[in-house]
Amino acid sequence: MKFFIKTFGCIQNTADSERIKAFYWNKGYKEVDNWREADLVVINTCIIRESAENRVYGLINEIDKWNRNPPALRAPSLDKEGLKKISIVVTGCLAGLANKDKTGKKLAQLKRDFPEVSEFLPIEKISYKIDPIRDKKDLALIPISFGCSNFCSYCIVPFARGPEISRPMEEILKEIDVVIKNGFKEVLLIGQNVNSYLNPKPLFNSPLDERENTNYVVHMGKKRLHSSFHILLEEVAKKDLQKISFVSSNPWDFSDELIATIAKYPNIDRLLHLPFQAGDDEVLKKMNRGYTQKEYLDLVKKIRSQISDVRFSTDIIIGFPGEDEKAFQNTVKLCKKAKFEIAYLNKYSPRKGTVSAKLYKDEIPQSEKKRRWNVLNDLINKK
Ligand code: SAH
Ligand code: SF4
Ligand code: F3S
C-alpha cells in the first residue's frame, strides 16, 4: 500500500505531517511523491483563511474526479477487481474543527458534503510519542505546545486546535538529544504562542517553577501566567546546537527573562518572529490583541537595546473591519519604525464561529485590501 501526504498551512502542520508519515509507515504504507500513484491520500489541512480552506476542497474534488473518471493513465493500477480507488483521509485543522464541535453538526455536514473522504482524523489520534520521519537534514522541528487559548477575535486556530497545552520539558529535551545524536545542528521550537510555554511537569526546583500556575503577570494588556519558556530555551541553548529558533511569539509573553536569555546565548537565532497584526490601537482592541502601537514599538526598542544584532519578522492582517485609511497609515507608520526584515501579509478573511465574523461586517473591498497589500509589500519585502 502506498500513501501520499499533502501539507497545507503553517509550520505546525509541517511538523505534524512528520508524525503522520511515521504513523502510516508504521502501518506498513510506503510514501510516494505523486498522489496519482497512491492508494491513500492524506490531506493535512489549513483553514486560516477562506482561500486556504478552498485549496483543500479543490484537492479533494480533484482526487474524486480522478476516482470517478479514470483516464487511460490509470491502467497500470488495474487489478483483478477493477480500477483501484484512492482513499482520502483528512487531518489537520479542518478535521480538528469538525471533531471539536460538540454538537456534531460540523462533522456531519462535512461527511455529507464530502462522502468521498473516508475519515476526518484529528491529529490527537496520532501520538506525539511517535518518532517523526524528519524531512529536513539539518533543521529539526520540535513542537513544544499545542493549541491556543488567546482567541484573537479573527482567528479560527483556538477552535481548530483547542486550548493551549504544553509538552513536558523533559520530553522536549529528550527529543532534542535524539536529534543532536542524529546529526541535526538546528532546532525550531514550535507553538502557536510559543513564548507562553508552561512546563506541566517542572524539571527543576528553581524558584521560577514554584511561581508556575500561581503567579500572574500583567504585560501589554494581558493577564498571563508566568511562562517557563525562557527556562526551556536556556536548556536548549546549552546543548550542542548551532541555531535555535522559535515561532510564533506574542508580544505580551515576551518577558525580560526571555530577552536576557536570547542575549546570553549567541546560538539563539537573532531573527525574531513577532507578529503585530495591526498598527492601529482601535483595530488592535477589536482584534483582542491587548497591546497598543506604542507598547509594541517600546518592546521592539527594548529588545534592540539588549540584543544589538536582533532582526524582526512579523505577520500583518490587512483590511480588518474598521481599518480605514487612517488606521492603515498607523500600520504603515509602525512598519517604518520597527523596520522588519520580512512581513507575512494576510488579507482579512472572516472565519465562521469567530468573534470578528459575528460582530463585524467584512467591509473593506478586495481591491482595497490588494492595494494595501502592495503598499506594505513594497515597503517591507521589496527592499
Ligand atoms: N499563532 C501565530 C500564527 C497564527 S496563524 C500567531 O499568533 O502569530 C498565522 C497568521 O495568519 C496570523 O498571524 C494572522 O496574521 C493570519 N490570520 C489569522 N486569522 C486570519 C484571518 N481570519 N484572516 C486573515 N489572516 C488571518
Ligand atoms: Fe490565532 Fe491569536 Fe492564537 Fe495566533 S495567538 S493562533 S492569531 S488566536
Ligand atoms: Fe492553518 Fe491550522 Fe496552522 S488553520 S495556519 S494549519 S494552525
Short descriptors:
383 residues; alpha/beta; Rossmann fold; pyruvate-formate lyase- activating enzyme; 2 domains; 5-stranded parallel beta sheet; 3-stranded parallel beta sheet; 39% helix; binds S-adenosyl-L-homocysteine; binds iron/sulfur cluster; binds FE3-S4 cluster
Short description:
By secondary structure, the protein is α/β, with parallel strands linked by helices.
Largest sheet: 5 strands, parallel
Give the CATH topology of the largest domain: pyruvate-formate lyase- activating enzyme
* Fourth CATH level, the homologous superfamily of the largest domain: tm_1862 like domain
**Helix content class:** 25-40%
Bound molecules: S-adenosyl-L-homocysteine, iron/sulfur cluster, FE3-S4 cluster
How do the strands of the widest beta sheet line up side by side?
2-1-3-6-7
Please tell me the total number of domains. 2
Rg from alpha-carbon coordinates = 22 Å
Shape: globular
- What percent of residues are in strands? 15-25%
Spans of at least 5 consecutive residues with low confidence: 207-212
Class derived from helix and strand content: alpha/beta
Average pLDDT, all residues: 92
Give the strand tally: 17
CA distance, first residue to last residue: 48 Å
How many helices? Answer: 14
| Name of the CATH architecture of the largest domain | Alpha-Beta Horseshoe
